[in-house]
Amino acid sequence: MSRTGILINKPYKKLSREQVELIDQTSLELLQTPGILCYHEESTTLFEKEGAKIKKTKEGEHDAWWISIPPGVVKSALESAPARVTLGARNPENRVVLDAEGNRVYFGTGSETNYWLEIEPEEFTSDKDGARRTFAVMKKSRGSLNLLCRSAHLAEQLENLDFFIRNVNIQDSDITTGNKDVNVFFASLNHLTKPVIGGVADYEQLEKIVRIAEIIAGGREQLRENPLVAFITSVIKSPLQVVDDTAEKLIAIARLGLPVVISTSPQGGSTAPIDMLGMVAQVNAEALAGITINQLASRGAPVIYGAVPVRARMDDLHDMYGVPEFCQYTMACAQMARYYGVPCYSTAGVGDAKVPGIQATMEKMYTHSMVPLAAPDLVHYSFGLLDKTQTYSPEQAVLDNHQIGMVKFLQREQEVNSNSAAKTKKMIADVMHSPYRMYARYARGMLRRGEIFAGFPFEGKLEDQDQTLLKVHEKFAELEAAKPKYLPEDTCKLIFNEISGLLPRLNPYGEVK
Amino acid sequence: MSSDLLELIVENVLQGRRNSDDEGIEEGDFGQPGVAELVARALEDGINTEQVLIDGLSRGMQMVGDKYESGEYFIPDMLTAAEAVEAGMAVLEPYLVSGGEKAGRGKIVMATVEKDLHDIGKNLVTIMLKGAGFNVIDLGIDVPAARVVEVAEQEGAAVIGLSALLNTTMSNMSEVVKLLEEKGLHDRIKVLIGGAPVSDDFAREIGADSYGKDAFAAIKEAEKLIVSGGNV
Do the interacting molecules here have an ipTM over 0.85? Predict the structure, then answer.
């Protein structure tokens, strides 16, 4: 058993087969000329062994190598990359099986926001008539370990959330570069029975994170079978540059045999061309370069094609997500990944808006509805993100969960065959001969079978005030009150005894003596 | 035995099964007796009409109403149950009349006003009122005020229920009220209005006695009008 996600029966293909082949060809040529600029010596050696042309250079104080990658090296990497990748989970029913040849889409969180935005209802008195009204006031605070835990606890309960990527940047005074990753992963794993994916800032902590996952899974082999953790590496700095320390981590993860997302996120208009062809050709080349490093390090290692192309705002060069170009780029990338037979990591649901409301809803609904049509395997950034990806709002995440429910409902299979047509004809004839010619009893059947969408659950009753945020705040409070699904006490004890750097306050059973 | 049969009637009202051809909420009841057959069987077994009406049909509908109020049931549940009650009432009614009992809980004339062809709202209220045990005379759509008042007077109705969907036709509701006033009938025939464009304020403005914001509210308003003689 595993999570089902959404099945997209006929993925939308904006690009023709010829156009896909042309973009593939363009990307392969870009990887030859100008090639990639690599800051990581071992990656350079891996390419060199495969016959790539290398030219050493100096970028400021740093050693770097221009690498011209022969197309055959990339193609061979794509052949050895598996089409199916399993993301494990504490609860086996929550596993996510990615299949580049299937059409299932899964939604998850993402980013590492600096701010947490939470609703605090407050009553106000009108200056005009003295009437008192309650409004949703926003309280903004800096991300912390406690807030990350609250977010993970909420994520566990949102039924349309399939995987978790740490979404709050923990900025507590006792968090350092040397203990951050290990605390983030433990906090996530301790609250979620769904797949956990994340980046690793500090290479030294990779081994500890894997060890935590092994203890939870029951051993090294068990972790390979049920990879409770998967990783994200932003190995490419756009345009076309391989980052030194991230390449180091990518190679290590490949050799551990754990799933990894090659995530590249160029910005159209600054670090990539803004037109669709230019953007997709470059981001595709970058993803292919990352996949190739991964496969050269370990053939057959589970790898995911991650493309997060964004567009620049023209007034301040910030990222923009809620615009048509974002969907064009992203949907084309999903098509490219499918062409290569590698699972795809994609993006939808980010609000450029700073607060929940009309702008955020428009932006989110637009990309949440459009991007899945191209059937990427993973859609991240889908819950609670606002202000580009700077802010996480738990109430917004609850709203996003509902939006994704609507998208899922839209895509569900519906029975259209000769049998159902015969039933329809009989139903209409029966109703035409009934006293009031109403279909209520048939609607009732569907309602009771769960075949009718329940409608908007956060509707207010007032005629002159939108109460959505107040209602969704109540729902969040209800979800938050549920008991967290912590790891068993003995597992926590083993982890806290063995892994250094974990903050004692994260242990739900108290400090280990 | 009689209580078992009455329980079955209640259960089938909840399931919304008019007769043996209906499925219930879940499939699998097809072929089993529905409300109409069960009422006939109850009468054959000698259960008195009042018991069938009160402990069977009305109790079933009351339970449906409670479930609607608690949020468990929705409008399709109410309508389907009301249809089942109506099917039972069709069997029961001749016995009520022959037994000298007053059929139902009071007489209501329903109509969509003149120049308005919309009948969904009016039908919905009609079905629900029948399901709640009222004796409803449905005059249909596009009914002139004079005809509504004429039938209400002839039939001795306690309430006229008027429906309108259009801003342009809602004003015709006031014609009915005016005519009742002119004929001196308004003190014994009360007017209940409903429909998307109308409101409580509008009801007061035209001199109507009550406004039902939905079908469920319409039942409550009709009950109040009949019980209190219009002083709601």
Answer: no
